[in-house]
Design goal:
Largest sheet of chain B: 2 strands, antiparallel
Strand order of the largest sheet of chain B: 1-2
Shape of chain B: globular
Number of domains of chain A: 1
Structural class of chain A: mainly alpha
Strand content of chain B: under 5%
Distance between the termini of chain A: 32 Å
Number of helices of chain A: 20
Order of helices and strands of chain B: HHEEHHHHHHHHHHHHHHHHHHHH
Helix content of chain B: over 70%
Number of strands of chain A: 2
Shape of chain A: globular
Strand content of chain A: under 5%
Oligomer: heterodimer
Largest interface: A-B, 29 and 31 residues
Largest sheet of chain A: 2 strands, antiparallel
Order of helices and strands of chain A: HHEEHHHHHHHHHHHHHHHHHH
Number of helices of chain B: 22
Strand order of the largest sheet of chain A: 1-2
Structural class of chain B: mainly alpha
């Protein structure tokens, strides 16, 4: 190995390489080995095998850090970093991609859109997310953003015959490129101000600059806008409900969970790194954005009739809570953000899983009416949905409570009493719309004959997400320790 | 290692529920039988607590302490003092009886129904046993979900509305409580450098009065909604009226006590300066007195039997909070006893409504009249329940109300004077209810063939009547059990109260 590609570099980038290689393999084998539509489902196995390899690679990185006794290792001359943070987030993406692959095949067959490249795209998106969590350099970060979002444009519009899906893809594409432009502009300003694209060097250079410099403020604002777009935080959330509703449900779940966690990873990399010294400038701004986001998300969700749309608004609200953790800004708060993102992966994906199971050729399985009396037809699935919703609402003893709890803990620790009060009161608002679904499933009498069609993958995925949601709530300790190791300071 | 008695009480219903889930859904008889057995086992598990409880010891007994989330300083800490002993016993007894009373009342989705009742029992017991604030909060919230379903699935015509209203009200209060809990947690850490939610540790935290006051108000909203105190009571009539009989019984007998228990366990000891301050005592006593009168007056005009009983709870719970904020031993001990009494009496009244509703499927008072002719046993039971609720001497209600009035008088005679009007009104609406439904000639032909109480129903009422008589005739054991914990609370809020000092009233102290 040359000095441009050392064994350490290889070790650091291996997970991304694996995703890319398996993705390309799927593109090849799709036409070569599995030409008929019926066989496409076997391609899901490629994703699963890929994830096993990725998991091993990530675990080896983790073991390496532990045995070397260091908190982070830089690779590619500081382009990438192996640290607890990147490993933790990559594990989240892994869970999301794995769940998405497990539940997609039946859904796509119902939609008659079972094409092989879908599975490759899942891996490519994950590859983009990898760079968002691991890159410590602006250009690599930006490439990660683009790889992830461009893949998602395709995935969102995957139902070529469905108008809603097409509309969603176009919307997401236009607004997404717009936000990428903002991000690129912000990055270029940061580079112009500091003469470097490496986050560590930018951090040093910015620390000595006066905060009232107009260019710096503009750089912060444009970068923030770009990140908030990806995070679907208000006032840059408008794309989310339409895109979530239009996309194929497994993609919606993957987008809601994976891309949001990736955006959070980038947010933390930037705001806990280069922008940490200018906290005074952005803290009030982010606090305001967080409160507006929670408000818009929760109030928007109240009147939704389509459950995917409701979950989209609720996802906006959740992003607001994560931002509150950043506002608190102490160790507890940052830990809170990481924990929130992780817990959110399980509970939000879980809620979408049940909707995926309800999708049938002649019924969308997305409206409140279609869920009426589901309890009597699909008891276990309804109970699992209840668990996910209760967790999303943040009621103990589920994981969602632990996540929200950390955010409030941090806010009160840092004296943000009003933010904490507003945050907790919206929990009560959220209960109303989450329990509209509960009410439809358990309290209303059955109207249709809508039935859950669980494929084996879906069953396993629901059980997995359920175990995560309850397990992380009841036995939070080991998981909290891991999350504690993953913060960036 | 000694047997972890408290965990046993806590987990028996949960274990019963888990077994229940594996029974075949089709076999209704087996499900009913097992649920009743599980309920009875839950009660049996709590009996050793009474036998082994040492009333001469201050502090908590049977304590258990395990690590739960050390990362946060959260522990699984359980303990029992006189106040929680009484409330836990009330919980296990009422839970068993409410399972028993559902034998023929519920046909639909039987397994889920009993599962919810048993889960609810675990939650309620946990609330009264937890000594860790975090654990307390978890149980507090766990109670909401099964109750939501009990009202929402098996409730009356407006069940959907009532269920979500109940949920939203309580949850709003409890999330504010969460904020208060975290403020205490950090205040403690600031002083001692240790993160803990243990109540006995949190007691040592000294906080400036201003902080105490706003933390008090946050806790207050959480507890006052649950009690419910006027003006937070509006969820209660809906929830109580729409819930199935067992749900109403447990709501009235246990869930409301979670609020008063919260005041006694958290607000008063943890925030002693705030709890004794003039503004707060005046505000809380005023709200209690309004609650007493308002609840009684609204009960007088009800046409719905169940709603009348529901509103009477607002009035009775007003007595309980009045007793607490009289801030003297009589007031607080009376309040706890009145909480038990209310559980027994109002529990019986709801069971009575349940019995008649099962037969006639209406709760309109106007539909009934002269029932004593066809259902003499039923009328007798109702008479006892009604008199115990109205506070007739020799029955339990009298002991509680009298002690509370004594305590209130000691603090301020005016409070007692106003509260007495509530006692009179209470007798009025209850006696009038009895007269309209039981006495006179049978006015409605539909009531002619009503069957009297059967053996199972009598078995439900007998223990409650016996308990009411016991407290009414010989309340000494209850006062003995309460003496130490009540003294601790009083000593905490008004230091020096017991040193032979002339009892200085908080109001006067603050006026100087």
């Amino acid at each position: 190995m040359s000095e441009f590609y050392t064994s350490l570099d290889h070790f650091a980038i291996l997970p991304a390489l694996l995703m890319g290689l398996f993705g390309c393999a799927i593109f090849l084998f799709d036409l070569w080995l599995f030409p008929s539509a019926r066989e496409k489902r076997y391609l899901a196995w490629f994703v699963i095998v890929a994830e096993v390899f990725v998991a091993v690679a990530l675990f080896r990185q983790f073991a390496y850090l532990k045995s070397a006794g260091v908190s982070s290792v830089a690779a590619f001359k500081g382009l990438l970093s192996i640290d607890g943070f990147s490993i933790f987030f990559n594990f989240m993406f892994l869970v999301a991609a794995l769940l998405a692959a497990m539940v997609s095949y039946r859904y796509l067959e119902e939609e008659r859109e079972n094409h092989g490249e879908y599975y490759a795209l899942l891996l490519m998106a994950q590859c983009g997310m990898f760079f968002l969590a691991s890159a410590t350099e602006l250009v690599s970060l930006f490439i990660g953003v683009e790889l992830m979002t461009i893949t998602f444009y395709v995935l969102v519009g995957f139902l070529a015959r469905d108008k809603r899906s097409n509309e969603a893809a176009i919307k997401y594409f236009i607004l997404g490129s717009f936000s990428s432009a903002f991000l690129a502009y912000g990055f270029s300003l940061l580079y112009g101000l500091t003469g470097s694209t490496h986050l560590t060097e930018i951090t040093v250079a910015l620390a000595s600059r006066p905060l009232d410099e107009p260019l710096l403020v503009i750089a912060i604002i444009t970068t923030t806008v770009g990140v908030l777009f990806k995070l679907a935080a208000a006032p840059f959330h408008m794309w989310a409900p339409d895109v979530y509703e239009g996309a194929p449900t497994p993609v919606t779940a993957y987008l809601a969970v994976g891309s949001k966690a990736a955006a959070i990873a980038m947010l933390l990399r930037l705001f806990e790194g280069p922008l940490a010294s200018s906290r005074e400038v952005w803290e009030p701004m982010i606090a305001l954005v967080a409160i507006v986001t929670i408000t818009v998300g929760n109030l928007g969700a109240l009147s939704q009739h389509n459950i995917k749309r409701m979950l989209a608004y609720s996802a906006i609200a959740h992003a607001g809570y994560m931002l509150l953790g950043l506002v608190a800004g102490n160790d507890t708060g940052i830990k809170g953000v990481v924990i929130y993102a992780f817990v959110y992966t399980f509970m939000n994906f879980g809620a979408f899983l049940v909707l995926i199971g309800l999708r049938q050729r002649d019924a969308s399985g997305e409206t409140m009416e279609e869920l009426h009396g589901l309890m009597r037809r699909n008891g276990p699935a309804s109970v699992m949905m209840l668990v996910f919703l209760v967790s999303l609402a943040g009621i103990p003893p589920t994981a969602g409570f632990i996540a929200k709890y950390f955010i409030f803990l941090a806010l009160i620790e840092t004296g943000h009493y009003w933010l904490a009060l507003i945050g907790v009161l919206y929990v009560a608002v959220a209960i109303y719309y989450y329990f509209r679904v509960v009410r439809a499933m358990f309290l209303e009498s059955p109207s249709g004959t809508m039935n859950l069609i669980p494929s084996l993958g879906l069953r396993l995925a629901i059980v997995g997400a359920g175990v995560g949601t309850i397990g992380l709530g009841l036995f939070a300790e080991p998981f909290l320790r891991l999350a504690g190791m993953s913060i960036l300071r | 290692m000694p047997i972890p008695l408290l965990s046993l009480v806590l987990l028996t219903p949960l274990a019963g529920m888990l077994v229940l889930l594996f029974l075949p859904s089709g076999n209704k008889r087996l499900i009913r039988l097992w649920a009743n057995i599980a309920g009875f086992l839950g009660f049996l598990a709590s009996v050793p607590l009474v036998l082994q409880f040492d009333k001469t010891l201050p502090g908590f007994q049977f304590t258990e302490d395990l690590n739960w989330i050390p990362f946060l300083g959260v522990r699984y800490t359980l303990g029992l003092d006189g106040i929680s002993l009484l409330l836990v016993m009330l919980t296990t007894v009422m839970s068993f009886l409410s399972i028993l009373c559902s034998w023929s009342a519920v046909e639909d989705r039987l397994k889920s129904y009993y599962a919810m009742l048993l889960l609810l029992e675990t939650g309620m017991v946990g609330v009264f046993l937890a000594l860790d604030f975090f654990l307390f909060y978890v149980f507090w919230e766990v109670v909401l979900v099964p109750m939501y379903f009990l009202i929402g699935v098996w409730g009356g015509p407006r069940k959907l509305y009532a269920a979500i209203k109940f949920f939203l009200y309580t949850l709003t209060g409890s999330v504010l409580m969460l904020v208060a809990m975290l403020v205490l947690y950090f205040a403690h850490h600031a002083q001692f450098g240790v993160y803990t939610f243990n109540i006995q540790e949190l007691l040592r935290t000294a906080m400036p009065i201003a902080t105490q006051q706003w933390v008090f108000w946050l806790l207050f909203i959480g507890f006052a909604i649950k009690v419910p105190m006027f003006p937070f009571h509006t969820w209660l009539p809906d929830a109580h009226t729409e819930a199935p009989t067992a749900g109403s019984v447990l709501l009235a007998a246990i869930l409301l006590k979670m609020g008063t228990y919260g005041f006694l366990r958290f607000s008063l000891p943890l925030l002693p300066d705030a709890s004794g301050s003039l503004v707060i005592v005046r505000a809380l006593v005023t709200l209690s007195l309004i609650g007493i009168l308002y609840g009684a007056l609204v009960s007088l005009v009800q046409k719905d039997w169940k709603k009348l009983v529901a509103y009477s709870s607002v009035s009775h719970l007003g007595f309980c909070t009045l007793g607490i904020f009289a801030l003297n031993p009589n007031g607080i001990a009376g309040s706890v006893i009145q909480q038990i009494n209310h559980g027994i009496s109002t529990g019986m009244l709801f069971l009575i409504v349940g019995v008649i509703y099962e037969r006639r499927h209406t709760r309109e008072i106007g539909e009934y009249g002269g029932l004593a002719h066809v259902m003499p046993k039923f009328a007798t039971v109702f008479a006892i329940a009604m008199l115990s609720s109205a506070g007739l001497p020799m029955l339990n209600g009298f002991v509680g109300e009298f002690t509370i009035l004594q305590g209130a008088f000691e603090s301020n005679p005016l409070w007692a004077a106003v509260a007495v009007i509530g006692v009179i009104l209470g007798a009025a609406y209850l006696l009038w209810l009895f007269q309209r439904t039981m006495l006179g000639q049978i006015t409605n032909v539909k009531n002619l063939g009503l069957p009297d109480l059967n053996l199972r129903e009598i078995a439900i009422f007998v223990p409650l009547i016996a308990w009411a008589l016991w407290i009414g005739i010989y309340p000494k054991p209850y006062f003995d059990v309460l003496e130490k914990p009540v003294a601790q609370i009083v000593e905490r809020v008004r230091p020096g109260y017991y040193q032979g000092m002339p009892a200085e009233k908080p109001v006067e102290a603050a006026q100087r």
